[in-house]
């Protein structure tokens, strides 16, 4: 009997440990505070299959939280995927009432779990003492975080604007608030405003400047959006690049292949130059360029619709969809050649490629179709054969039949009719006299 109870308990644990499978009945009330982490996937998607064990680990990490972890086949339940404007696979969304956030970072257990926890909130956490302040500085030594410094009793105009902005950008950074008195005096004496807003990143800090119009939501949002990225971060594919689309800057991307041992020195030199330009010479380039690097060339290959030779340097304008490539050999790259290239882009003298013209859009459609076909083939050759090969074969057979079928020869019948109509009395057959007499 004990064994039976043990088996039932184990079965119950297995059932409960499963990720929730959703269908078209899934709907979230705007007033419902239940948090959901939902993966929208396609059965044929190779990236989705690679994410499956990682996503299960995410579920295990969040099992004791209030977040419900679920997944939905977007190819079958299109109503829900269309509602949330899912356009690629896999797509991971955090949904809580009318709050929806899209994960655009690395597809690792740590990154996805941290994304869910950020979205769950609270968005702005209070630092109560100096020791906690130093812990926060140490914890985010390799990332960025924003700190509102001012009285915690009552809401200042800056705090009101900051809270509104952070609710919108909850998953993009870390946000804190504290009173001025708990901070180190050597730091406080350099602050220009009270209350104020400061961002810590790259071992430095930068203060928000209200501007001539005073404290406005647009200026606070611009400050947070502009400063939430590190000076030279690593991008997680296309999601990381699209996450920078609100910067209104050109993105300077260095694409490397860390597995290529022959390019290790060149990769390192390019990264070192970009780091120097984005930090030491921040004043010269920060207003117009955001530097970044990635080790996945797929995103940049998609932008250029070519296969880039690595390492590569590309500058992409997220607003116009134009991109720029250096004319010099990257083997000879120096700070001077790099900065000259960026200055030519800034003054408009550098040649640009891409854009959103008609021919470019046609080329993009053809390229996207090819990539979609290839992705399905890579995931399952038999599925690709069934989806594309079989219809192509049927169409080919029909076309061949229509083009090569021999026409019916009506010439003989037509000739016989003409002969009967034009026959002379002499040529007419003679009737039997007996038959005529009877008539």
UniProtKB/TrEMBL annotation:
It holds the Pfam family Thioredoxin_6. Residues 429-439 have a biased composition (Basic and acidic residues). Keywords: Membrane, Signal, Transmembrane, Transmembrane helix. Residues 413-439 are annotated as: Disordered. One of its GO terms (cellular component) is endoplasmic reticulum membrane. PANTHER family: PROTEIN DISULFIDE-ISOMERASE TMX3. Probable disulfide isomerase, which participates in the folding of proteins containing disulfide bonds. May act as a dithiol oxidase. Acts as a regulator of endoplasmic reticulum-mitochondria contact sites via its ability to regulate redox signals. This is DgyrCDS6640.
């Amino acid at each position: 009997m004990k064994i039976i109870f043990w088996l039932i308990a184990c079965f119950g644990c297995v059932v409960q440990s499963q990720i929730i499978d959703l269908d078209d009945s899934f709907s979230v009330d705007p007033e419902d505070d239940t948090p959901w982490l939902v993966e929208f996937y396609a059965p044929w998607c190779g990236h989705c299959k690679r994410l499956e064990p990682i996503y299960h680990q995410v579920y295990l990490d969040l099992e004791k939280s209030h977040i419900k972890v679920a997944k939905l086949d977007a190819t079958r339940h299109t109503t829900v995927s269309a509602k949330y404007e899912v356009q690629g696979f896999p797509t991971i969304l955090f949904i809580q009432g009318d709050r929806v956030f899209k994960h655009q970072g690395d597809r690792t257990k740590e990154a996805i779990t941290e994304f869910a926890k950020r979205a769950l909130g609270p968005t702005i956490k209070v630092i109560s003492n100096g020791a906690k302040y130093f812990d926060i500085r140490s914890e985010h030594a390799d990332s960025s975080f924003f700190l509102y410094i001012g009285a915690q009793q009552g809401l200042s105009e800056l705090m009101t604007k900051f809270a509104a902005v952070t609710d919108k950008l909850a998953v993009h950074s870390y946000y804190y608030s504290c009173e001025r008195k708990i901070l180190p005096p050597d730091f406080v004496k350099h602050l220009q405003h009270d209350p104020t807003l400061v961002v810590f990143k790259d071992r430095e800090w930068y203060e928000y400047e209200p501007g001539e119009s005073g404290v406005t939501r647009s200026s606070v949002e611009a400050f947070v959006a502009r400063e939430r990225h590190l000076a030279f971060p690593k991008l997680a594919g296309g999601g990381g690049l699209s996450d920078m689309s609100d910067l209104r800057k050109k993105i300077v991307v260095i694409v490397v292949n860390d597995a290529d041992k022959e390019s290790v020195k060149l990769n390192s030199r390019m990264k070192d130059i970009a780091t120097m330009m984005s930090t030491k010479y921040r004043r010269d380039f920060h207003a117009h360029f955001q530097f970044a690097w990635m080790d996945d060339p797929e995103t940049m290959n998609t932008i250029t619709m070519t296969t880039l030779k690595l390492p590569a340097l590309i500058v992409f304008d997220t607003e116009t969809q134009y991109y720029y490539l250096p004319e010099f050999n990257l083997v000879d790259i120096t700070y001077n050649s790099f900065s000259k290239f960026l200055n030519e882009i800034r003054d408009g003298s550098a040649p640009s490629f891409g854009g959103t013209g008609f021919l470019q859009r046609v080329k993009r459609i053809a390229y996207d179709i090819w990539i979609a076909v290839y992705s399905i083939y890579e995931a399952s050759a038999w599925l690709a054969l069934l989806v594309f090969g079989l219809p192509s074969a049927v169409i080919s057979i029909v076309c061949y039949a229509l083009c090569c079928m021999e026409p019916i020869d009506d010439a003989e019948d037509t000739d016989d009719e003409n002969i009967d109509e034009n026959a002379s009395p002499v040529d007419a057959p003679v009737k039997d006299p007996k038959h005529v007499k009877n008539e």
